[in-house]
Amino acid sequence: MLEAILHPLIEFVTETIGSYGVPAVFVLMLLESMGILIPSEAISPFAGYLVSEGKMGFLAAVTAGVLGNLVGSWIAYFIGLWGGRELWFHYGKYVGVRAHHLQIAEKWFDKYGEFTVFVSRCLPVVRTFISFPAGTARMNFAKFSFYTLLGCIPWVFALTYFGYVLGENWTTIGDYLHYLDYAVAVALVAGAVYLFWRWRRSAA
C-alpha cells in the first residue's frame, strides 16, 4: 500500500526536477515544508544524483533545497498564526495532510517548546508539520526562522550528498536513512551545544 502511494510521488518528483532543474527543487521542498505529501527523501537525493551526472551544481541543489524548506516553513507558520489549527485540520486533508500528523507535531512542540523547531529536522513527520504549532503558539518569527534554517541545512546537505554518492542507486537511500538520521541528529546536537556555549559566554 505504502509503495503504491510513494511510487507515483517519486516519479512526479524525478520528472519535475528532470524537466525544470534547480527551481523545481526549490518549489518541491517548499511544498513539502508546507505539509503537502511530497517526500524530501526523494527530492534532495535525486538532485544529488543529478549533481553526480554533471546536470546540476551541488551548491545550487543544496541552496534551493534549504531556501525551499525555509519559505515553505514560513508559509506553514503564518497559516498557523493567522488561521489557527482548525484551518489546517479542516482543509489539510485536501492536500494529503492527516490530522494525526499535526497532532504529533503539536505534542512535540507542547512538550519540548520552541527548540523543537530546531531539533525536529531529523525526526520523521514532526519535521514536516512543526511549523504549524509554532505559528499557532505565536513563536517569535525571527527565532523561528533561525531555528528552521539552522535545522534544515544539515538535513538537506546530507540528503543531497547521499544522492550524489549513491549516484544511479539513489533510490536505495531508504536503506541508509537511519544512519542519515543519526548523522543529522549528531550535527544538530553539536550545533545546540555550540549555541549554548556562545550564549553562556555572552551572558558571563
From TrEMBL:
It is found in: Cell membrane. GO terms for cellular component: plasma membrane. It comes from the Bacteria. InterPro entries: DedA_domain (IPR051311), VTT_dom (IPR032816). Keywords: Cell membrane, Lipoprotein, Membrane, Transmembrane, Transmembrane helix. Signal peptide: none annotated. Pfam families: VTT_dom (PF09335). Residues 38-164 form the VTT domain. The chain crosses the membrane at residues 20-38, 58-79, 144-164, 176-197. It is a multi-pass membrane protein. Belongs to the DedA family. This is FIG139438: lipoprotein B.
